[in-house]
Specification:
CATH class: Alpha Beta
CATH architecture: 4-Layer Sandwich
Mean pLDDT: 85
Strand content: 35-45%
Order of helices and strands: EEEEHEHEHEEEE
CATH superfamily: Ribonuclease Z/Hydroxyacylglutathione hydrolase-like
Distance between the termini: 27 Å
Number of helices: 3
Shape: globular
Structural class: alpha/beta
CATH topology: Metallo-beta-lactamase, Chain A
Helix content: 10-25%
C-alpha cells in the first residue's frame, strides 16, 4: 500500500494512512470519522519524534522512509495524543528502541511496556510540546 508523505518544512513530515479500525459506519452520524488518520515525524537536535504514527501492514516503503530519517537519531520518541492513537507505537518502539510518551490519563489504557507518562504541559522532545487543555484532552504540536 502506497502512502504519500508530505514534507511540511525542514525536518518535518506528515503522512496519512487508512486506520485499521475504520468501518464505513464510522463515516456516518453526527461525528463522522475519516478513514485516513494523520501522522507526523519531526527530527531535531538528534531526536526523531513520531506523533501518533501508523505504519500500514506490509508497507516496506513506509519503513524505508522512517529508517532513513531515524538512522542518524540518538533518540526516538513516540508521542501519543490519546491511547487509541497507539497505532504502530509498539512496533516503532521495538524497531528503534523508542520511548513512548502519553498523558497520565491515557497511560492505563495503553498496553505498551515502558511507556512514560506526563501530567501537564511539557517538552516531550526537542521542539515538541505536549499541551493539555483544561478538561478537553491533549494535543501535540511540533
Amino acid at each position: 500500500m502506497r502512502v504519500a508523505t508530505e514534507r511540511l518544512a525542514a525536518n518535518l513530515w506528515r503522512w496519512t494512512a487508512p486506520s485499521p479500525h475504520w468501518t464505513p459506519a464510522s463515516a456516518e452520524g453526527a461525528d463522522p470519522w475519516p478513514r485516513d488518520v494523520g501522522c507526523v515525524l519531526y527530527v531535531r537536535d538528534g531526536t526523531a519524534t513520531l506523533i501518533d504514527p501508523l505504519v500500514p501492514d506490509g508497507d516496506d516503503e513506509r519503513w524505508a522512509f522512517l529508517d532513513a530519517r531515524v538512522a542518524g537519531a540518538d533518540r526516538v520518541v513516540v508521542a501519543l495524543a490519546a491511547p487509541w492513537h497507539r497505532r504502530s507505537a509498539a512496533e516503532i518502539a521495538a524497531r528503534y528502541g523508542a520511548e513512548v510518551a502519553i498523558h497520565r490519563a491515557g497511560l492505563e489504557r495503553l498496553a505498551i511496556s515502558g511507556a512514560r507518562a506526563f501530567d501537564a504541559d511539557i517538552a516531550v522532545a526537542p521542539g515538541v510540546e505536549a499541551l493539555v487543555p483544561p478538561a478537553r484532552g491533549l494535543s501535540l504540536r511540533p
